[in-house]
C-alpha cells in the first residue's frame, strides 16, 4: 500500500497556501503509507540559464550537520560557480547559473554520498523516512508555495525503507513521479534503458517507471504519447501521479487495482488515493468529485 | 421515531459503530444521521437491526458492509467494497461507488445512482444490485446468485464465469466474459426488472434491457476445450 496526493491551484492567493492545504492531505494518507513521505513542489521558474538541485545529506557521514555553506564555498573555489543554498535540516536547494552536469559531476566526485534528489528550474524535492506528519514538520511543508505539487506516503513492498527509495522519484529535469502499486517488469525496463545510457540509483520498481517515462519525453514524445507507451510497456499495478512545470498527470492500470479520487473546483484540482485526504479542502462539498477510470489519461494544466 | 446524530468530526467512528452494534435493541427502527463522514472506512458495517442510517457526505471503504436488516443511505460517493457481503436490508449510494461494490453480497438490495467501478457484484451470492450509471470491467465475475441491473454501459469481461446470477444491461458492453451470453427476455424477466427498477426509484422501460446469463459451458471440465474458452 501507499498513498498519493497531488494539488494544483488556480488562483494566486492559493499559490501562497499550497503547502498549508497539502499537509492534511499527506497526513490523511498515513495509514496507507507510514514509513516514508515525500513532496515535489513546482514553483516559479528560474531564469533560462539557471538550475537548482534538491540535495539530501542524510546519507553522508555528517547527516543533518552537513556543512552546506562549505559546499558553496568549495563550488566557488573549484568551479568558480556562484551558488545559492537554501537549507532545511538534511535537505538543501542549491541554485546556480551554470550547466547542472558540471555541478553534478563535481558533487559526485567530491561528495559521493550526497544524494541528488532533483534537477531543474522549477522543482524542489523533499523526501525522507518517518511518518508523513514527521516528514512534513521536518521540512516545514506547510510553508511551501507554488502552483502544484506531488506528494507520497510510502508503505514499502518492493524495496527497502530508505530515504532514497522514498517517493517522488525524478529523472532528467523538472519531472517527478509517485507510485501506488507494484510493477512486475521493472527489471526488463531497466535492461531496456541501460544500453541507452540511463543510470539507475536504486533497485526500486518505481524508479524504472519514472526513468522510462522521462526517457520517452526526452526522446520527443509529448506527455500523452509517453503515457500511452507507459501503458504498453509497464506491467503491474499502478496509480502514477506525475508532475512537470506545466502539468499534473495521472494514470491507473487497466485493473484499477490501486485507488485514486479527484476533487475539482474553480480554485483547485486535488488528487488523492482516498477521499479522506480531500475532506478538509475548502468548499470540497461543492467540488466535482470523481474516480479516474483505468487506462485513461488525466492531465491538468498549471 | 427517535432520531440520533453522530458527527464524525467530533466523535469517533468506533464510538458510533459500537453503539450500532451494542446499543440497539432487537427490532430497533431508529433513524441515525452520520455527519462529516469525510471518507472514513467501515461506516455502519455489520448492522443487525432495521435501523435507517443516513450518511451525509462521502464514505470510505466497506460502508454498509455485512449489513443485515438495516437501511443505509449514503448521500455522496462510496469507496471500495460498499455493501460487501451484505446479508439483507439495503444500501443506497446516491453518488458513485468505487471498485467491488456489493462483492459477495448474499441478500438485500444495493442501489447505486451513479457509476460503479470495476468488479461490481463480483462473486454475488444472492443480493440484488441496481446501478443507475455504468459499471467497470469484470463486473459480475463468478456471480453465483442474485440479479444485477445496469442502466448504463458495462466495461470488459462482463459476467465472466457466471454461475446462476442474471445480469440485465440497458446500455452497451465492451465485452462479455467467458461463458456469459445474451439471452432472450421472458415475461418473468420483465417482471423482475420492473420490480427492481421500482425499488431503486428508477423509471427506465424494462423493454430497453437485455438479459445476460451463463451458457453453463464451464460447469463441467471439458477435456476437448484445450484450455480455450
From TrEMBL, chain A:
<dbReference type="InterPro" id="IPR029055">
    <property type="entry name" value="Ntn_hydrolases_N"/>
</dbReference>
<dbReference type="Pfam" id="PF13522">
    <property type="entry name" value="GATase_6"/>
</dbReference>
<dbReference type="InterPro" id="IPR017932">
    <property type="entry name" value="GATase_2_dom"/>
</dbReference>
<keyword id="KW-0808">Transferase</keyword>
<protein>
    <submittedName>
        <fullName>Putative N-methyl glutamate synthase subunit A</fullName>
    </submittedName>
</protein>
<dbReference type="GO" id="GO:0016740">
    <property type="term" value="F:transferase activity"/>
</dbReference>
<keyword id="KW-0315">Glutamine amidotransferase</keyword>
<feature type="domain" description="Glutamine amidotransferase type-2">
    <location>
        <begin position="2"/>
        <end position="302"/>
    </location>
</feature>
Amino acid at each position: 500500500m501507499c498513498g498519493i496526493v497531488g494539488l494544483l491551484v488556480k488562483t494566486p492567493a492559493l499559490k501562497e497556501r499550497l503547502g498549508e492545504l497539502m499537509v492534511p492531505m499527506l497526513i490523511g494518507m498515513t495509514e496507507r503509507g507510514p514509513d516514508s513521505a515525500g513532496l515535489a513542489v513546482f514553483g516559479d521558474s528560474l531564469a533560462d540559464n539557471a538550475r537548482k538541485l534538491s540535495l539530501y545529506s542524510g546519507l553522508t557521514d555528517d547527516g543533518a550537520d552537513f556543512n552546506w555553506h562549505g559546499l558553496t564555498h568549495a563550488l566557488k573555489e573549484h568551479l568558480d560557480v556562484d551558488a545559492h543554498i537554501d537549507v532545511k535540516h538534511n535537505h538543501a536547494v542549491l541554485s546556480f547559473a551554470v550547466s547542472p552536469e558540471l555541478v553534478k559531476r563535481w558533487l559526485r566526485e567530491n561528495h559521493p554520498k550526497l544524494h541528488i534528489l532533483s534537477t531543474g528550474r522549477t522543482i524542489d524535492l523533499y523526501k525522507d523516512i518517518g511518518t508523513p506528519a514527521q516528514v512534513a514538520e521536518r521540512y516545514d511543508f506547510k510553508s511551501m508555495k507554488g502552483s502544484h505539487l506531488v506528494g507520497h506516503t510510502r508503505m514499502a513492498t518492493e524495496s527497502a525503507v530508505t530515504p532514497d527509495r522514498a517517493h517522488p522519484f525524478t529523472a532528467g529535469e523538472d519531472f517527478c513521479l509517485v507510485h501506488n502499486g507494484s510493477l512486475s517488469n521493472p527489471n526488463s525496463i531497466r535492461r531496456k534503458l541501460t544500453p541507452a545510457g540511463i543510470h539507475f540509483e536504486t533497485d526500486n520498481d518505481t524508479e524504472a517507471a519514472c526513468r522510462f517515462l522521462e526517457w520517452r519525453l526526452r526522446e520527443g514524445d509529448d506527455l500523452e504519447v509517453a503515457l500511452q507507451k507507459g501503458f504498453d510497456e509497464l506491467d503491474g499495478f499502478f496509480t502514477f501521479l506525475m508532475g512537470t512545470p506545466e502539468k499534473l498527470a495521472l494514470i491507473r492500470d487497466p485493473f484499477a487495482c490501486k485507488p485514486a479520487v479527484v476533487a475539482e473546483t474553480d480554485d483547485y484540482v486535488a488528487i488523492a488515493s482516498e477521499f479522506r485526504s480531500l475532506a478538509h479542502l475548502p468548499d470540497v462539498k461543492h467540488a466535482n468529485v470523481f474516480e479516474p477510470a483505468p487506462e485513461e489519461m488525466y492531465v491538468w494544466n498549471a | 421515531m427517535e432520531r440520533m446524530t453522530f458527527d464524525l468530526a467530533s466523535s469517533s467512528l468506533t464510538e458510533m459503530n459500537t453503539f450500532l452494534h451494542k446499543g440497539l435493541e432487537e427490532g430497533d427502527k431508529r433513524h441515525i444521521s452520520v455527519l462529516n463522514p469525510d471518507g472514513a472506512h467501515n461506516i455502519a458495517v455489520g448492522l443487525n437491526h432495521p435501523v435507517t442510517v443516513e450518511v451525509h457526505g462521502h464514505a470510505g471503504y466497506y460502508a454498509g458492509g455485512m449489513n443485515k436488516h438495516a437501511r443505509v443511505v449514503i448521500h455522496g460517493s462510496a469507496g471500495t467494497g460498499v455493501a460487501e457481503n451484505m446479508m439483507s436490508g439495503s444500501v443506497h449510494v446516491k453518488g458513485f461507488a468505487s471498485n467491488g461494490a456489493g462483492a459477495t453480497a448474499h441478500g438485500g438490495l444495493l442501489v447505486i445512482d451513479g457509476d460503479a467501478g470495476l468488479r461490481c457484484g463480483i462473486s454475488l451470492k444472492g443480493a440484488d444490485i441496481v446501478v443507475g450509471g455504468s459499471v467497470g470491467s469484470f463486473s459480475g465475475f463468478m456471480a453465483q446468485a442474485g440479479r444485477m441491473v445496469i442502466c448504463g454501459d458495462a466495461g470488459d469481461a462482463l459476467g465472466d464465469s457466471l454461475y446462476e446470477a442474471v445480469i440485465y444491461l440497458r446500455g452497451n458492453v465492451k465485452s462479455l466474459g467467458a461463458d456469459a451470453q445474451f439471452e432472450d427476455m421472458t415475461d418473468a424477466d420483465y417482471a423482475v426488472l420492473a420490480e427492481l427498477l421500482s425499488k431503486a426509484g428508477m423509471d427506465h422501460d424494462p423493454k430497453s434491457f437485455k438479459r445476460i446469463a451463463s451458457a453453463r459451458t464451464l460447469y463441467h471440465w471439458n477435456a476437448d476445450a484445450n484450455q480455450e474458452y
